[in-house]
Design goal:
Layout: H1 2-27, H2 42-68
Helix pairs in contact: 1-2
Length: 69
C-alpha cells in the first residue's frame, strides 16, 4: 500500500511541476492555440493552471500527512 501512495504522491508532484512550468511560460507571454489554430484564452488557462496547482498542493499535503501517520 505504501508503494501506491508513494507513486501517487510522485505523480501529483510531477503534475504540479508541469503546471508551474506552463504558468511560467504564460507569464512570459506564451500563446497557445488549439489544433485548428484557434487561440486559447490565456487568462482562463492561467486561472485553470493556478487552480490545478492549488489542488495538487492539497493532495500532496494530504498524502504526505498520511505517510507520516
Amino acid at each position: 500500500m505504501a508503494l501506491d501512495k508513494d507513486s501517487e504522491l510522485e505523480r501529483f508532484k510531477a503534475t504540479r511541476v508541469t503546471a508551474l512550468f506552463r504558468l511560467d511560460l504564460i507569464e512570459k507571454g506564451a500563446q497557445l492555440t488549439y489544433e485548428d489554430g484557434t487561440p486559447v484564452d490565456m487568462v482562463s488557462e492561467k486561472q485553470r493552471l493556478k487552480d490545478q496547482v492549488a489542488d495538487m498542493d492539497r493532495r500532496i499535503a494530504r498524502l504526505e500527512a498520511a505517510g507520516e501517520a
